[in-house]
Design a protein that fits this description.
5 domains, alpha/beta, six-stranded parallel β-sheet, seven-stranded parallel β-sheet, 26 helices, single chain, Rossmann fold
Length: 633
């Protein structure tokens, strides 16, 4: 058996391990059930990849993230290591061949989703494999108290029956002690070796700023820190909007979201990874498996949905050990927005029952039937037929997918794709002679920004509603524009495909998952409240707040977060000192509050308080251009 350090050097060109890696690897090689809790950037994948390479046989890796599976498989293959992933879209005969290759083809890694363990062919072939390790990535998904519970993860326990002598390794970047205990219980660990690296990041300054003008604050942050940055936004449209804004301010920027093609994702990622662009504007679809050590700032324009996800996203900065910043920008609207986005759209048990019954009726599935059948599905038409709120209905379908009642294909996100290929002048010239579709075109333009720059998914039902016409009329207009080479059009007849994994039993089916639905809704409410508590607590060190959430005790203030800096400035600066600073700076020029703040060592709150006092005492006045000047000049 090769020594781990030799494997590390041979395949990864490193000569030493990161903290905990060697101890974890040795525990796995010794056959222990092993739990590794390493924060983002801690090098978790090597902790199972090196032991698997050191021993005879194949390692089975369970992961819920298709993109991460593909990335890791590609990285292993680039090193000459035989690895494969069983992703969606594989036919039965292809699956049969791939599994045979795992038995007879000297493969070292088989990546698969937990749902695959429901297939008899997969379970039967795993019995025949020479398995040397079972690695469970994103292991918090097995816990009902974890951040991203997936009931299908409970299928992993089957592997312990199929391969009873093989040790199991669980890995995650964020889990509270209760979740850690639950994971080990669910995976039936025996005398586990547990490795927990502290969540403390001494070089990371956590910042929370109240900002009415968030874009202005982004400008100031990026000017002060011209190194690589990530800006997380709420939705796909915002990635393009924010990226465009940054480009207009002379920052180099690109964007990333789940709706881009694989080619576009790779291109945008590569130009950012190679420092051809400073800023990556992204939804939370971005970042998993990305290891860029020189990221200086991560900025959240909106509040995240949980402390766990925030900690992972914030942890993508400063991996080179240099000082880095994780910033949340919030204002008075954000609490309502985060509740609307994550809580108001949580489907109740009663609503899920309604969705499931209507879905079965819509697909014409008789009671007791449907299992293993696949149906074409038009989501827009489904919602319109039964007058469902689209977001709430989609979340209910996702919940049915996550709880293995159905599978919902990913084509849902690519129904009608449009891009205008001519200039706006040429377009309106065309509309002068085709006025019958003018209102439809204008409705599209006013609803979807960036449709001249890139392919954009449009909701034809929404466009029809805005144009006071029928959806078929909108589609005919789009086909007319395509024929005239005004637009490119990609239109599929269905939004998705749905496969029933259980026979239709209406309320009986949903009652089996009712407890899970309620518990997950309560958990989501707790997670959102924890985020609000973190964002609003300006008395306690931000770093200690995060550490306390993960139950780390006896932590000292970091000294570099927004709260700690404010405390230091408050101690140093008397009101007289700040007022004196303002008066001195106004002797030569009239200045705005922003200009005074930008050049000062004081906080924005301190500057504003001093300005208010000076105005009250008539030492200064406000000019017509909203700047301040001394009354005696």
């Amino acid at each position: 058996m090769q020594h781990p350090i030799n494997i590390l050097e041979r395949y990864w060109n490193f000569t030493s391990f990161r903290p905990f890696q060697e101890e974890i690897i040795n525990a796995v090689i010794d056959g222990s059930d092993t739990f590794a809790l390493l924060p983002t950037g801690g090098g978790k994948s090597l902790c199972f990849q090196i032991p698997a390479l050191a021993k005879e046989g194949i390692c089975i890796v369970i992961s819920p993230l298709v993109a991460l599976m593909k990335n890791q498989v590609q990285a292993l293959q680039d090193k000459g290591i035989k690895a494969m992933a069983l992703t969606s879209g594989i036919t039965y005969s292809q699956l049969d061949t791939l599994l045979d290759n795992c038995i007879y083809g000297n493969y070292k890694f088989l990546y698969l989703s937990p749902e695959r363990l429901q297939q008899d062919i997969v379970k039967d072939r795993i019995r025949q494999m020479n398995v040397n390790l079972i690695a469970v990535d994103e292991a918090h998904c097995i816990s009902q108290w974890g951040n991203d519970f997936r009931p299908a993860y409970k299928n992993i326990a089957l592997l312990r029956e199929i391969q009873p002598s093989v040790n199991v390794m669980a890995l995650t970047a964020s889990a509270t002690p209760d979740v850690v205990d639950d994971i080990m219980k669910e995976l039936d660990f025996i005398q586990p070796k547990v490795f927990k690296q502290s969540f403390y990041r001494p070089n990371l300054a956590y910042m929370v700023f109240n900002e009415e003008d968030k874009f202005y604050r982004i400008e100031t942050i990026l000017k002060k820190n011209p190194q690589p940055s990530i800006i997380y936004v709420r939705n796909r449209k915002a990635t393009l909007d924010v990226s465009r804004f940054l480009e207009s301010k002379k920052f180099t920027s690109t964007y990333y979201h789940g709706g881009l093609s694989n080619k576009e994702k790779d291109e945008n990622l590569n130009i950012w990874m190679n420092n051809q662009k400073q800023v990556m504007v992204a939804t939370n679809a971005f970042g998993m498996g990305i290891d860029k050590p020189d990221v200086k700032t991560v900025i959240h324009i909106n509040l995240p949905d949980s402390i766990e996800s925030y900690f992972q996203e914030a942890g993508r900065v400063g991996r080179n050990g240099e000082k880095a910043f994780a910033v949340i920008l919030k204002n008075r609207n954000d609490e309502l927005l985060v509740k609307n986005q994550f809580l108001k759209v949580l489907p109740s048990v009663a609503f899920v029952k309604t969705i499931y019954r209507k879905l079965s009726s819509y697909l014409q599935i008789s009671y007791g039937e449907g299992v293993d059948e696949t149906f074409d599905f038009n989501f827009n038409d489904f919602c319109k037929t039964y007058a469902f709120n689209a977001t709430l209905a989609y979340n209910a379908l996702l919940l049915l997918d996550r709880t293995s009642v159905i599978t919902l294909s990913k084509q849902f996100n690519e129904r009608t794709m449009v891009q205008f290929m001519v200039s706006s002048t040429a377009l309106f010239g065309y509309l002068e002679t085709h006025s019958e579709i003018s209102i439809i075109v204008k409705s599209i333009l006013r609803t979807y920004g960036g449709i001249f720059e890139q392919e954009t998914k449009i909701n034809t039902s929404l466009v029809a509603e805005k144009a006071s016409t029928g959806e078929n009329v909108v589609l005919n207009a789009l086909r007319q524009l395509e024929k005239a080479e005004i637009i490119t059009l990609k239109h599929s007849k269905t939004d998705a495909q749905i496969t029933y994994l259980q026979p239709r039993e209406d309320d009986k089916t949903i009652n089996r998952i009712g407890t899970i639905i309620k518990q997950q809704n309560e958990l989501k409410q707790k997670h959102v409240q924890s985020v609000l508590n973190y964002a609003n607590d300006d008395k306690n060190c931000k770093s200690t707040q995060l550490l306390s959430y993960f139950k780390e005790k006896d932590n000292e203030d970091c000294g570099i977060c927004s709260v700690c800096i404010k405390k230091v400035k408050s101690k140093r600066a008397t009101q007289e000192t700040i007022q004196g600073y303002i008066v001195k700076n106004l002797e030569d020029n009239n200045l705005s509050s922003r200009e005074l703040f930008e050049s000062s060592p004081f906080s924005e709150v301190q500057i504003n308080a001093a300005l208010k006092a000076l105005l009250e005492h008539k030492v200064i006045v406000i000019t017509k251009t909203n700047t301040y000047k001394l009354t005696h000049t």
